[in-house]
Amino acid sequence: MRYQISGKQIDIGEALQTHVKSELDVAVQKYAERPTDAQVIFSKSGHEFVCETTVHLSTGLTASAKAHATEIYAAFDGCTEKMEKQLRRYKRRLKDHHRERAEPVELLGASSYILASDQHGEAEEPETLQPMIVAEMETKIATLSVGEAVMQMELSGAPVLVFKKEGKEGVNVVYRRDDGNIGWIDPA
């Protein structure tokens, strides 16, 4: 597994990097057969350290966790516990569905844009209705079943997930509704 361990305005020593690699490797290998890479970012928020971890699995799914603590090692350990819990739930759901994916998830290339919002609250009418693009990135759209899409959305903590449904053309969307349920948009 490839590791990217970094700190935002704090130095990450060799001892912490070694601890992160060994502990995260043990936690992830327990529940995931083929993790591909992990990104661990440490930062400071007030008097607490923050650890954010993202692990990409070979199936195309992504698990992420975040934890706060007054000690940097405790922040990482809390983050690892949350990651283990997510991966344990993921593995249990896969077993419950009695379905093993024989091949990796198919990924389609797509473009992702960040559009500028009207932060100034101007009452004036804009000159054009075309939004201003702030950033453009490449992204991937996975081919998943609806159950896998919901699982991926919950693992990543995202409010919405765009995916291509297996055996169909076009994109589908699953999203978390205000009432706590999951919504699914399946175009005809």
TrEMBL record:
Keyword Cytoplasm: yes
A GO term, aspect molecular function: ribosomal small subunit binding
Descriptive protein name: Ribosome hibernation promoting factor
Alphabetical keyword list: Cytoplasm, Translation regulation
GO cellular component terms, A-Z: cytosolic small ribosomal subunit
Pfam family, one: Ribosomal_S30AE
UniProt record similarity statement: Belongs to the HPF/YfiA ribosome-associated protein family. Long HPF subfamily.
Domain Sigma 54 modulation/S30EA ribosomal protein C-terminal: 130-183
Location (main, coarse): cytoplasm
